[in-house]
Fold each of these.
Amino acid sequence: MASARVDLDGNPIKAMTICMIGAGGFIGSHLCEKLMAETPHTVLAVDVYNDKIKHLLEPAGSHPWSDRIQFHRLNIKHDSRLEGLIKMADLTINLAAICTPADYNTRPLDTIYSNFIDALPVVKYCSENGKRLIHFSTCEVYGKTIGSFLPKDSPLRQDPEYYVLKEDASPCIFGSIEKQRWSYACAKQLIERLIYAEGAENGMEFSIVRPFNWIGPRMDFIPGIDGPSEGVPRVLACFSNNLLRHEPLKLVDGGQSQRTFVYIKDAIEAVLLMIENPARANGHIFNVGNPNNEVTVRQLAEMMIQVYSKVSGEPSLEVPTVDVSSQEFYGVGYDDSDKRIPDMTIINRQLGWNPKTSLWDLLESTLTYQHRTYAEAVKQAIAKPAAN
Ligand SMILES: NC(=O)c1ccc[n+]([C@@H]2O[C@H](COP(=O)([O-])OP(=O)(O)OC[C@H]3O[C@@H](n4cnc5c(N)ncnc54)[C@H](O)[C@@H]3O)[C@@H](O)[C@H]2O)c1
Ligand SMILES: O=C(O)[C@H]1O[C@H](OP(=O)(O)OP(=O)(O)OC[C@H]2O[C@@H](n3ccc(=O)[nH]c3=O)[C@H](O)[C@@H]2O)[C@H](O)[C@@H](O)[C@@H]1O
């Protein structure tokens, strides 16, 4: 298999060893799956958890890829084994981060440490050892759009110049320091600048990924089932939880913010292209999203209600949504990105990548997974207090 695979320039792809930090998370689990099923590469999977990749690791020795994936349970905050693993690998991919908005304003120190301080040694070891790095940043580094500062009735708000987000041209616009929501975006921006500087001054080979709301199976957790009851995951899991419990979906500040959602499986194709085409990917920052899948959060809720009813066979909710203030939902210091449309010029030009899956289709496969995985457990959790 290894000799048959070629890169975008027709050159054979050599098997490589990848140190993947944060491999046990949502994106990491899909990337590990793809690398095991379709490539000859070896993964040194680093994380504090491995629940989401257990199906790739166990039973030990039973999969065709078993000798190509090793799990290393370690916390990169304080573990001297990290440098050795980076040295053993040809490429390091750093996914480790605190990346749920409910944490940014309530745990700003942990957020800044996780997204900046803890990533520093990874960058340093890659630079010092001449290793290539693919670092996961975020579309949140763009912050708010320029258009959001124009008067509400300004025709310029319709002009893409004022809202499309371009890696090499758009500014990064954050709220004031009291709006601690931006602690995450600001930490990610500074680590991007540091990586860029390592490339410019020391010749480090790097690519930076800015994901735009990647969603799909295994994203985050369902509160009270496979995560804390009081935990607040990202919107897909929040709305899935409401649907599973037959509760109205909560629209923060009326659900007026806009997002573009991309299917995780489409997005992983883009990451694989970066991994296997270093000459085209090195030195670039890549938006990875689906500009065709834009909705307001209210529209997302409405679509998820329809799709869930279809895949579960249950009737739609009588009271489908309820408005909630951001202060009540997230606490003091929350703020929001108004709109996120990725410009696709760079990823198209360098890697020829385009997303394929419509929002309806990706919600259908994701909510089928949510229903199959959680409906019974939620039913039992709801029934339990009554039984006691
Ligand atoms: N999912 C998205 O749409 C999205 C969007 C923008 C940016 N990102 C970025 O992509 C990356 C991965 O996101 P995800 O959605 O898979 O999140 P995730 O929370 O599912 O995965 C992150 C993983 O990193 C691990 N981790 C965190 N700190 C660690 C530490 N100190 N040591 C070892 N492991 C640690 C966690 O245990 C977790 O498994 C993050 O950097 C995130 O900021 C994701
Ligand atoms: O996924 C991304 O690209 C990035 O954006 C996310 O940020 P955000 O899109 O604001 O987070 P979500 O939790 O997915 O929320 C999306 C929108 O839904 C709203 N929301 C969320 C949950 C809910 O129950 N109801 C609700 O209306 C939020 O206020 C926000 O406007 C996270 O910061 C990161 O995972 C990531 O860096």
Amino acid sequence: MTATPLLEARDLCVSYGAFDVIKSVSFSVPEQEAMAIIGPNGAGKTTLFKALTGEISCKSGTVAFRGSEVTGMPAHKRTAVGMGRTFQVSRVFLDMTATENLIVALESRHRNKRERVGGWWRTSPADQLRNEAEDLLDQLNIGYLRNEVAATISHGDKKRLELALALALEPTILMLDEPTAGMAPADRMQIVDMILDIRKQKGVAVVMTEHDMDVIFAIADSVMVMNYGEVIASGTVDEVRNSPTVRKVYLGEDMYNAAG
Ligand SMILES: Nc1ncnc2c1ncn2[C@@H]1O[C@H](COP(=O)(O)OP(=O)(O)OP(=O)(O)O)[C@@H](O)[C@H]1O
């Protein structure tokens, strides 16, 4: 008997009005695996990502998480059941410190999971949340951001904080929408290290869209290639790299620069 995939899309179709953007896409992601979605501009990567996270609805097809259908479930409920996510455009509260941002996320998780906060050894709820937030920042090696107001931190640090916010919800799968968008090459590799660390420490699966092939090769176990809303190839990083179909789509382009 094959194990139930962590995330599974079946015959997913998405349209903008009369324009079919995602055409019968099916794939599955096993527990703890990392899958990257790549393809030329306009291939439908972001649209597929939004359909998976519940930001937009599908015309037909299904999305299942741990064997339960989530197709009609709104985005915030998918997050609550374990589908953590980051956004291309930061959703950090800019007027709060990194710690305060994390406290908001942690409060939401405790509320969703009906977990008791505070009360042990005279720890107040506020102290417990602050300790948890600071511990998480330390675990991710961004403890230096504790008291920094988010508006004043660098773009790279905002991306790191976004990851921490997603992790505060203890996801089983992390949905990363271009986690290194707009970052300098050196910063990108720091995010890669952080994601690799998170996978090692927490065993979370990953689904990511990403422009940078070096980032994909460093993180992904498998790659799914899209073109004009269809899956044209999928497999391990090496299989996809050597696929004649994929090379044809990227004809005349350096594949290392053509993922986006
Ligand atoms: N809100 C929208 N309304 C109508 N058409 C849209 C909308 N968003 C995207 N599209 C179109 O849908 C197609 C797929 O877009 P999508 O953004 O999903 O592609 P992508 O692969 O993520 O592209 P990129 O790499 O440039 O971000 C494109 O032709 C795009 O113009």
